[in-house]
Design goal:
Blueprint lengths: L10 H12 L12 E5 L2 E3 L1 H13 L17 H7 L3 E4 L10 H5 L4 H19 L1
Antiparallel strand pairs: 1-2, 1-3
Helix pairs in contact: 1-2
């Protein structure tokens, strides 16, 4: 029976796993069935990302039967979102949001605030 993903994964572990997948890393995970991680315009199977990212934490990759790819705490989609990544239903586009990974890509915080300030003001006006 699958377990929860062991704690300790960091954004850096996931970014290294994404680079591995971009380089053609061989892994035992299939294609995504319901959800995809979207990063810099590319789509990835969340379970494959987590499985490979775990290697950078512990020295061994998690196998597909060791954890779930769902939404609950300790499952792949939940963990990836907590680390600031975008996970969407397969085939859907990501919502326009600023995440920790956006700021980490080198966008100056001031620029992010300037972009979001008008949008947040409009949202606040509708809330009353």
């Amino acid at each position: 029976m699958p377990q929860s993903i062991p704690p300790g994964l960091k954004t850096d572990h996931v970014l290294k796993a994404l680079a591995d997948l971009d380089a053609g890393a061989v892994h035992p995970f299939g294609e995504p069935t319901k959800y995809e991680l979207v990063h810099e315009g590319k789509r990835y199977a969340p379970k494959a990302v987590i499985g490979l990212a775990y290697h950078y934490l512990s020295g061994r990759a998690l196998q597909p039967d060791e954890f779930c790819g769902g939404e609950a705490p300790g499952q792949a989609n939940y963990v990836l979102r907590r680390l600031g990544f975008t996970v969407v239903r397969k085939g859907e586009g990501p919502r326009s949001t600023v995440t920790r990974s956006t700021v980490n890509r080198g966008w100056p915080l001031g620029d992010v605030c300037r972009i979001l300030r008008p949008r947040l003001s409009i949202q606040a006006a509708f809330r009353g």
